[in-house]
Specification:
elongated; 2 helices; 5-stranded antiparallel β-sheet; Phage tail protein; alpha+beta; 163 residues; Phage_tail_completion_R
């Protein structure tokens, strides 16, 4: 599985304070299954990714927006769902400023397995279909401000950010 590591790298870059304290970010794979059929070894991982940010201080949008942007690239079908609910979250409010955030995302990853003539096997992780990048550039961890029409929705306060 590659998506949990991809999301971890993005959040460590995009969320202020996480790079300096990576131990505050934990990812768990829950309810994992493998979907496969007879005739070949190719398969699909299906699982729920639970990411937890502990003792987060600041605007929760600084976590939510990069997650949405990552979903747009890594699992775009979640943004096309009829219910418009790409993931779930919970928050434990610890005090006036800090909270533990838990986000759960239902993910899939296609894996193609081929058996060469010489024996053995080769594995290739398949890319998601393109075309639904609603937030171009955000997954490069360069988000500074996000506007919806003329309204400022989120911005980073990371002093190390250079636009």
């Amino acid at each position: 599985m590659q998506k949990p590591d991809q999301l971890r790298r993005l959040l460590l870059q995009a969320v202020p304070g996480l790079a300096a304290n990576p131990e505050r970010l934990a990812l768990y794979v829950d309810a994992g299954t493998v979907a496969a059929s007879a005739g070949n070894l190719s398969f699909e991982y299906r699982y729920t990714l639970n990411l937890v940010v502990q003792d987060f201080v600041g605007d929760r949008n600084l976590v939510i927006v990069p997650v949405l942007a990552w979903i747009a690239e890594a699992q775009p079908d979640l943004l096309a769902r009829p219910d418009s609910l790409p993931f779930k979250f919970e928050a434990e409010i610890l005090d006036g400023e800090a909270a533990d955030l838990s986000i759960t995302i239902a993910l899939t990853e296609g894996v193609r397995v081929v058996t060469p003539d010489g024996g053995g096997y080769a594995v290739q992780h398949l890319d998601e279909p393109a075309g639904l990048d609603h937030f171009p550039g955000v997954c490069g961890a360069t988000l500074w401000q996000l506007f919806l029409r003329d309204q400022l929705i989120a911005q980073t306060s990371d002093p190390a950010f250079q636009p």
